[in-house]
Amino acid sequence: MKPRILIIEDNEQNMYLLTFILNRNGQEVLQARDGRNGIDLALRENPDLILLDIQLPEMDGYAVAREIKNDPVIAGIPIVAVTSYAMVGDREKAIAAGCSGYIEKPINPDTFMDQIAGFLPGMPQGKRAVP
Ligand code: MN
Fold this sequence. Notes:
The protein is α/β, with parallel strands linked by helices. Helix content is 35%, strand content 18%. It contains 5 helices and 5 strands; from the N terminus they run E-H-E-H-E-H-E-H-E-H. Strands 2-1-3-4-5 form a 5-stranded parallel β-sheet, with helices on both faces. Helix 1 links the parallel strand 1 and strand 2 (28-32). Helix 2 runs parallel beside helix 3 (61-69). The longest helix is centred in the first third of the chain and has 13 residues, at 12-24. It is globular. It starts with a strand and ends in a 14-residue tail after the last helix. The mean pLDDT is 90. Manganese (II) ion is lined by residues 10-11, 53, 55-56.
């Protein structure tokens, strides 16, 4: 079964790039443009991994991560924060909010799949298509 990855991201260019890379590497993608829709989609679809932008309208990514981790139905889904923040302490904040990992923007298509490989089921490193 294809891994399914939920992307919660409000920037269309980043959404497009992430979706493109993941699709090229055999991943099914679910998309949400804000935190509330992302949480609803996670509850409905039970994805294998959540890629979470931190700068989101309404709820920020930290609040989204905390809510997911406080819901026993979806708390087990790993979350990787994707953020352009480069300030000291952001990684710690993402981890404290319940994220399992952290990727900084801009996304590098050459290394992205390796960066998330450890969080995906059945995705051995070195078996990826190059976009
Ligand atoms: Mn954003």
